[in-house]
């Protein structure tokens, strides 16, 4: 049964009381923070007047806040589902309302408030010391340069070069060299006499600030990943506030001032400051935080570091690591699913990771340019300016490269220089070369391309770093002395490294940047980014008993699984009521392992989510073009980001080939792309796209150092040299000509033998051209059939078709092709051959017939038929052993068998592989 209480007092609900519950998983929320919601609650007025304060009169006269009843708890067979406020929105006849959980209540209280408006507690006393501990201290100091701190404050004086400058700026330079938190014995300079000016800025540790913020609103962090991670716990929040207070020597003086309102001159007695000293004073945390919307601040924390906030019913909060969720164990819901999975359309989106830089810091914004629209011109980075200037490759205007040791982008093109002699500009010259265009903190695009974008926006940034290794700003400062005007600053974070040092890099080398091996996308989104970019939506119905509904609602962010797959719930919708079991609709995304975490030569983890290492033995590809690597025990890894395979007929067999010597996998994709995967380290699945073919690809084969590619519904093929993964060039187009417009129409497969390339087409042709591929292929024979694939043994060449008309020739006479049939034991003809794999003098041929799938051909007249109980999907020869992948055509999984004479021996289950190769 479903019940509702207010401050532990039950409300009268009725025997058929039910409601609609909707819960969104915060794992997938990057633009909002929200909790569960219980809607469509209907209660009788009579019997609830005391608890709800005559709700029918509330509707007519009460203020809006009177309609919220705190301490509400929705229970299902005694287990709490949602705790928070019961909100009444109608009480005429019946009480109609909904329950917002405690997070919703917090959001309502803090809506449209900024950090600076919150109560962070009593004033704090600064304790000076050389090193702060992020585990026990609330803030730290680190040395940074800010020449503009005292800009527009105090009186102006003439500087040594004759220009006007603030007197405080002069004194700041004299005492501290323009450094905020200038180092001193025992910590930092904390006082200044009348000849100097100092700035002390304690920077709050981010995890401590969040703890204080939530605690002041009666929420308590139970698990804080930001404090557990060795790098993230050292993050501190930059600000431009000086906690030192001035003590001024003053004397009363009379001044004659012009009153603009009365247009008369007046004499005023004012206190003139003749000298000032600076000393420590108590400070408030709200002076150290930026003027930012609280929601944006929380979202900035989530999105920058790939965490999320989970608000529990008992007013505790967890700050959870998304990467840790994906590495965690899955909760089994197998026995509760009551419908088939409905599979949606796979996402293929570019993830845009963006920053929000501080426009009030001239040291940053005058050196930063958004390069989003120029990112296709950004080439490989170089280590230094010398490396940049020594590039001898052809350079084009608009080329951009990052110089790593400066973290500065340079653009190649025309610009002007002014040659200076004796302090005077003598001549202006136009030159061509590399010019600095922007500092390196750019937005980052994962899985970039001509596709939809989803933005993961950080509302944070960091400071520019000087070559000497300290942060640099040029930003007006704040202090209690000049409190009438608050100089703006945006939220920026730095890593604290101890001994009054820090900046954009942690002690372990993590960078406050999206890009690079040490940037946040690789270090914090290593598993999450590929999953989000290529996620596969699925949907099914479950029927949960009370304890399972309670568990899933309170742990919706965890991995789940059933008998078919692991998945992450995106949204849960349920209508709990008087029945013990509740029908639940789950919208989810299927979990598929990705390849972003590896050690060379070894694949960490398996497809079942375990963490033990595996050594690749097989390479498989499913009918959508997704690659797998599989070890000898059946554990597998795959990538969740891949290009769709060609839409041409039989593409799942014809448009895939693997070159074992270089561990390169070639997949013919749709829209004329060849996806090339380098598997040489057992794990790298980066795709290189070659956009040189304008139609879908009909076949692909590595032959004699060439990657031969057929073009669907065209009398064309193309080829490119097979070589290093990083050195592929554009393909060369070849056209097949002959007496018929159908000659060479849709080439399906290729073979190379003895100086000649052989091709077969969907139009029933077998063609040949010599090693000078640019020549037009010669038609050898034309048969009334549709060819699918080719293969060669040590003595013969074979071509197989889709209608049981196979052809072969001796390699000693490739002009003469003879027809033969695949036969079963009774002499009956057999159906099409999909795959053909050479094994010495034999050919392993795989058929689409369900019960007679495998043939071993020693010659056309010497055939062995083997029943493997399913479709033959692919064969791999490993040494002297032959392995067969089997399954159903619309398979979601399959089996691997080992050939043993005229029998097959089951090895283990496979993922949904339709092609198989020896790694």
From TrEMBL:
InterPro entries (UniProt xref): Quinoprotein_ADH-like_sf, WD40/YVTN_repeat-like_dom_sf
Name of the protein this chain belongs to: Phage tail protein
């Amino acid at each position: 049964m479903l019940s509702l209480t207010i401050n532990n007092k039950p409300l009268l609900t009725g025997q058929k009381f039910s409601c609609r519950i909707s819960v969104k998983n915060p794992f997938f929320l990057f633009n909002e923070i929200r909790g569960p919601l219980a809607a469509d609650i209907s209660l009788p007025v009579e019997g609830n007047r005391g608890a709800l304060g005559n709700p029918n009169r509330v509707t007519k006269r009460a203020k809006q806040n009177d309609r919220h009843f705190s301490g509400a708890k929705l229970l299902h067979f005694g287990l709490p589902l949602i705790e928070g406020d019961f909100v009444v929105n109608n009480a005429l006849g019946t009480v109609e309302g909904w329950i917002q959980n405690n997070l919703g209540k917090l959001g309502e209280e803090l809506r449209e408030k900024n950090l600076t408006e919150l109560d962070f507690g009593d004033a704090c006393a600064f304790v000076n010391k050389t090193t702060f501990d992020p585990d026990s201290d609330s803030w730290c100091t680190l040395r940074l340069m800010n020449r503009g701190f005292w800009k527009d404050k105090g009186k102006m004086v003439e500087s040594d070069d004759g220009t006007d400058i603030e007197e405080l700026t002069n004194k700041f330079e004299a005492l501290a060299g323009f450094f905020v938190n200038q180092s001193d014995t025992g910590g930092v300079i904390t006082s200044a006499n009348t000849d100097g000016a100092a700035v002390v800025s304690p920077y709050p540790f981010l995890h401590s600030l969040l703890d204080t913020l939530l605690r002041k609103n009666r929420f308590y962090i139970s698990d804080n990943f930001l404090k557990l991670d060795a790098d993230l716990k050292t993050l501190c929040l930059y600000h431009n506030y000086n906690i030192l207070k001035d003590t001024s020597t003053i004397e009363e003086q009379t001044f004659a001032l012009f009153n603009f309102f009365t247009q008369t001159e007046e004499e005023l007695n004012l206190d003139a400051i003749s000298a000032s000293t600076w000393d420590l004073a108590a400070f408030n945390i709200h002076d150290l935080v930026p003027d930012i919307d609280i929601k944006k601040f929380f979202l900035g924390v989530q999105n920058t570091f790939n965490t999320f906030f989970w608000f529990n019913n008992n007013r505790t909060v967890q700050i959870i690591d998304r990467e840790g969720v994906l590495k965690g164990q899955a909760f089994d819901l197998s026995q509760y699913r009551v419908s088939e999975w409905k599979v949606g359309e796979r996402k293929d989106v570019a993830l845009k990771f963006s920053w929000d830089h501080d426009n009030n810091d001239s040291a940053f914004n005058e050196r930063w340019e958004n390069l989003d629209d120029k990112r296709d011109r950004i080439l490989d980075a170089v280590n230094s300016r010398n490396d940049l200037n020594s590039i001898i490759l052809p350079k084009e205007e608009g080329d951009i490269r990052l110089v790593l040791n400066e973290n500065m982008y340079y653009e190649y093109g025309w610009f002007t220089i002014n040659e200076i002699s004796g302090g005077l500009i003598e001549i202006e010259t136009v030159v061509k070369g590399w010019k600095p265009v922007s500092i390196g903190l750019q937005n980052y695009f994962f899985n970039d391309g001509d596709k939809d974008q989803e933005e993961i926006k950080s509302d944070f940034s960091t400071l520019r770093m000087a070559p000497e290794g300290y942060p640099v700003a040029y930003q007006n400062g704040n202090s209690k002395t000049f409190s009438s005007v608050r100089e703006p600053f945006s939220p920026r974070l730095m890593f604290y490294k101890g001994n009054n040092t820090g900046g954009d890099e942690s002690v372990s080398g993590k960078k406050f940047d999206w890009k690079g091996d040490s940037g946040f996308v690789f270090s914090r989104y290593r598993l999450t980014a590929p999953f989000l970019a290529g996620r596969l939506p699925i949907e099914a119905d479950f029927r949960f008993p009370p304890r399972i509904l309670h568990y899933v609602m309170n742990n919706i962010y965890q991995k789940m699984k059933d008998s078919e797959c692991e998945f992450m719930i995106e949204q849960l919708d349920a209508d709990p009521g008087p029945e013990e079991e509740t029908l639940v609709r789950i919208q989810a995304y299927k979990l598929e392992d990705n390849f972003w975490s590896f050690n060379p030569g070894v694949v960490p983890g398996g497809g079942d989510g375990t963490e033990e290492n595996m050594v690749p033995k097989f390479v498989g590809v499913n009918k959508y073009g997704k690659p797998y690597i599989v070890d000898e025990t059946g554990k597998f890894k795959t990538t969740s980001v891949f290009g769709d395979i060609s839409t041409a007929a039989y593409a799942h067999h014809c448009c895939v080939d693997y070159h074992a010597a270089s561990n390169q996998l070639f997949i013919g994709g749709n829209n004329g792309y060849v996806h090339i995967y380098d598997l040489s380290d057992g794990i790298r699945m980066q795709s290189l796209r070659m956009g040189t073919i304008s139609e879908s690809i009909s076949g692909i084969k590595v032959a004699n150092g060439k990657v031969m590619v057929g073009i669907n519904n065209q009398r064309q093929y193309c080829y490119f040299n097979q070589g290093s993964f990083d050195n592929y060039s554009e393909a060369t187009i070849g056209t097949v000509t002959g007496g018929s417009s159908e000659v060479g129409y849709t080439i399906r497969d290729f073979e190379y033998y003895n100086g000649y390339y052989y091709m077969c087409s969907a139009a029933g042709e077998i063609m040949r051209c010599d090693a000078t591929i640019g020549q037009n292929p010669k038609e050898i024979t034309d048969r009334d059939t549709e060819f699918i694939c080719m293969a060669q043994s040590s003595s013969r060449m074979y071509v197989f078709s889709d209608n049981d008309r196979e052809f072969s020739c001796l390699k000693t006479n490739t002009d003469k092709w003879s027809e033969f049939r695949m036969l079963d034991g009774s002499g009956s003809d057999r159906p099409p051959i999909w795959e053909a794999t050479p094994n010495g003098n034999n050919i392993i041929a795989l058929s689409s017939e369900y019960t007679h799938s495998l043939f071993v051909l020693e010659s056309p007249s010497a055939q062995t038929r083997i029943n493997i109980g399913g479709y033959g999907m692919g064969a791999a020869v490993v040494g002297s052993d032959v392995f067969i992948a089997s399954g159903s055509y619309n398979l979601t999984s399959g089996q691997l068998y080992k050939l043993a004479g005229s029998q097959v021996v089951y090895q283990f289950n496979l993922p949904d592989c339709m092609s198989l190769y020896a790694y």
